[in-house]
């Protein structure tokens, strides 16, 4: 059977899944996509209520880590493991790889959401990203990012023009 059937309900046979028109073995092996923009608050204890749409997609646990541009990455545990393995495959003789690994891994914190879907954003990460209570959580595909709301709005404003100019460079030509 293989990983293509890993998301099946217990007791569902491969034959039953293959006859289901909604079943796509390639799609079912891809990581979930975290999409959208949300504006939750961080409470006085540093807890963040995960957006409801993310809760089932994130699985049993998440890892929060330093992100680029002073945000906090919110990664499904599986995605964090994939990234960590990729980082660790680089040679320890590569100075940039060692430095990146130190900064990324030393600030990482694994969390299991509580019954209300909240995770604790450690003080280290709140300080790094300058997070107060007014934040934005954005879905960025296989990860989410937590930003100070004003920082995110400034960033988005600065990048808006570049966004339309770089689309052709980033996305391959797609025939519809």
TrEMBL record:
Pfam families tied to this protein: MraZ
InterPro entries the UniProt entry points to: MraZ, MraZ_C, MraZ_dom, MraZ_N, SpoVT-AbrB_dom
SpoVT-AbrB domain ranges (all copies): 37-79, 108-151
Top-rank taxon, per record: Bacteria
Cellular location(s): Cytoplasm, Nucleoid
NCBIfam families linked: division/cell wall cluster transcriptional repressor MraZ
Protein name per the record: Transcriptional regulator MraZ
Gene source species: Bifidobacterium phasiani
Lineage: Bacteria, Bacillati, Actinomycetota, Actinomycetes, Bifidobacteriales
The encoding gene: mraZ
